[in-house]
């Protein structure tokens, strides 16, 4: 008998994140609608800061760190990222809003002093070796997948911390006063589940890097996080199979790319009947 061909996972971690922002967005994206029609200043700022953060390990490993040298190193790295991004994402950079390049890079540059202050504080509090262990990738953007979970995803990094390989994700948005946002916890937990499926070893924690602030947070993966991820996976499966979720989310509606297509279920029904 021929061995069964492995099933390619249908759900990606980005679907789960989309679901957390609004279940209906999963529906639209799975039907070919574009989530980001073009690069605007805020998206460019986020892309630049993510790229910049990949340089933290190299910059932090340099011996003579003070605010001035750190600031200069980060500015050089940001300029480099500004030049490299269009080469790395050529498709995205064909559609860019007028003025987005200047405004996005100015916004990213304005974040450098706070990043410097927080990196220095982290180095003082935890020590260089600990910081470097948490920041330095043993793998960058590895593809992880699990047939059993019907899930695939790409963590920004895998780092080796306290002899354990764990995922680390780069987040360019706001940073909570303590810990991590609930959606980032789900993001980290989904990647921990994937890494466990690949390695066969428990992944008890993960890192979230709030790259606009130079802050690193460790997040312990709880059973309740795993349960929630599995629940969301099942809901996403149903949406991708054709279920249109109720329109419940209001918070993101005003800035949502799909707002003109997105009407309440009852209005949708009245269009057809
Ligand atoms: S318009 Fe609102 S409900 Fe519709 S997909 Fe966007 S965020 Fe969700």
Describe the structure.
With 273 residues, this protein is an alpha/beta fold. The protein has one domain (11-240): Lambda Exonuclease, Chain A (Alpha-Beta Complex), CATH 3.90.320. It is 50% helix and 14% strand. The strands form two sheets. Strands 2-5-6-7-8 form a five-stranded mixed sheet, with helices on both faces. Strands 1-4-3 form a three-stranded mixed sheet. Helix 1 crosses helix 10 and helix 7 (112-126) crosses helix 8 (128-135). Iron/sulfur cluster binds at residues 22, 24-25, 28, 247, 249, 252-253, 256, 258-259, 262.
What's the topology here?
Layout: E1 11-12, H1 13-21, H2 23-30, H3 41-53, H4 56-61, H5 67-88, H6 100-110, H7 112-126, H8 128-135, E2 137-140, E3 144-146, E4 151-153, E5 157-161, E6 164-171, H9 182-199, E7 205-210, E8 215-220, H10 223-240, H11 265-272
Parallel strand pairs: 1-4, 6-7
Antiparallel strand pairs: 2-5, 3-4, 5-6, 7-8
Helix pairs in contact: 1-2, 1-9, 1-10, 3-5, 3-6, 5-7, 7-8, 9-10
Bound molecules: iron/sulfur cluster.
